[in-house]
Amino acid sequence: MTLIKSISGVRGTIGGAKGDNLSPLDAAEFAAAYGHWLKKKYPGKSLKVVIGRDARPSGPMIQGIVQNTLVGTGIDVIDLDLSTTPTVEMAVVFEKAQGGIILTASHNPKQWNALKLLNDKGEFISAADGAELLSMIENEDYDFVEVDDLGSVEAKDGLIEKHVEAILALPYINVEAIRNSGLKVAVDAVSSTGGIAIPILLKALGIENPALLYCEPTGQFPHNPEPLKEHLGDIMKVVKEQNCDLGIVVDPDVDRLALIDDQGEMFGEEYTLVAAADFLLQHKQGPLVSNLSSSRALRDLALSRGQEYYAAAVGEVNVVTKMKEVNALLGGEGNGGVILPDLHYGRDSLVGIAMILSHLATCGKSLSELKAGYPAYYMAKNKIQLEAGMDVDGLLKKIEAKYQNEELSTIDGVKIDFAEEWVHLRKSNTEPIIRIYTEAKSPEKAEALATRFISELQELI
């Protein structure tokens, strides 16, 4: 059982002791600190916070604790109940709130939950703000209001629809072409809130009779909720048997988008962002951004179109910071996260779906044909479990020194760029592991590179 506190919130498994797992007391503590942090940031102001959650079984319990703790700090709560991460982010702006909390553990199994904390722009709070909040928890630096000053809870519907309307209002989302395309679509929403949001989006785009798998938001995930090939046999089968043009797969909070192509094969999470960028660059020009662990294919695409490419440290807040710095056209992460500044600065599967459908409806190619036209890279994702007392920073410094004559980046762990392949070694923000990501021109070369660096790390331990 695990509890992980970080600058962006808290994540853990349900049950067990306070401080060891995500207990009701931990949830209340983080909510209290967040409420007090907002009150310090906006002294004397009436405050609103938007709360939404994915469908996992602990959601109602955690939501009740969090929103009533905020009420106890004198903050009003706008309750979206079952929603998506990008919808909550946009709702903060729609509702002119000072913050938001998303209750979701993303791709983690159902025994996990988390509080993800937003600022008044509907973006994840900064590292400095997160550090201040963690300090408040350590020092129990928060208090509560008297009875006449308690906040309120207002349930609010229709925010997913408002989110969808904003997507359809983007000038390059071609609703008419999608409606006339006859595209046949399958959806796997892993029994969470994508099962609510994606059918609303598809109906608005004119997609009729999609094949819906696991779209009842029970929170009883029918397979591992991380949208990887080994977990998606059911939808791959449906796409082939029903001759679908594509399959749409999201994680429980709908910020990661994976696609199944018309052959029933994985399009690849890494290529979701590439395809979205390919589409957008036909309408607008500008730099592209992804994190250091994302495929080189996005960089290659940017350069082939005469555009600049930038890499950021892993983590949505880092990617967003770099995107703002360079005024990026599009950005995201190789886990299927598409960030479109024209809509908002957050990973958003719904706008990703609309962009991909617009692309297919106007380009005259199938999804498999699109993939064949992109630079071919293959990634391997491995990890080493951390042991108590291990000097991880020192370990990575040794790797850095060993490869000092190669193209290096040390903004987030160590990334080594070789001529036709790369390796990225970094401590995970969410698990007690070192992640080892490699990419090369074939699956075999990517795995061989990973095996090589796993051995080198083990020799240095």
UniProtKB/TrEMBL annotation:
Lineage, uppermost ranks: Bacteria, Pseudomonadati, Bacteroidota, Flavobacteriia, Flavobacteriales
A single BP term in Gene Ontology: carbohydrate metabolic process
Protein name, entry field: Phosphoglucosamine mutase
Database matches in InterPro entries: A-D-PHexomutase_a/b/a-I (IPR005844), A-D-PHexomutase_a/b/a-I/II/III (IPR016055), A-D-PHexomutase_a/b/a-II (IPR005845), A-D-PHexomutase_a/b/a-III (IPR005846), A-D-PHexomutase_C (IPR005843), A-D-PHexomutase_C_sf (IPR036900), A-D-PHexomutase_CS (IPR016066), Alpha-D-phosphohexomutase_SF (IPR005841)
A Pfam entry, by short name: PGM_PMM_II
Keywords associated with the record: Isomerase, Magnesium, Metal-binding, Phosphoprotein
Start and end residues of each Alpha-D-phosphohexomutase alpha/beta/alpha domain: 8-141, 172-264, 271-374
Limits of the Alpha-D-phosphohexomutase C-terminal domain: 396-453
Gene3D superfamilies per record: Alpha-D-Glucose-1,6-Bisphosphate, subunit A, domain 3, Alpha-D-phosphohexomutase, C-terminal domain
GO cellular component: cytosol
Record-level Gene Ontology MF annotations: magnesium ion binding; phosphoglucosamine mutase activity; phosphomannomutase activity
EC number: 5.4.2.10
Similarity annotation: Belongs to the phosphohexose mutase family.
Cofactor: Mg(2+)
Top EC group: isomerase
PANTHER family registered for this protein in UniProt: PHOSPHOGLUCOMUTASE (ALPHA-D-GLUCOSE-1,6-BISPHOSPHATE-DEPENDENT), PHOSPHOHEXOSE MUTASE
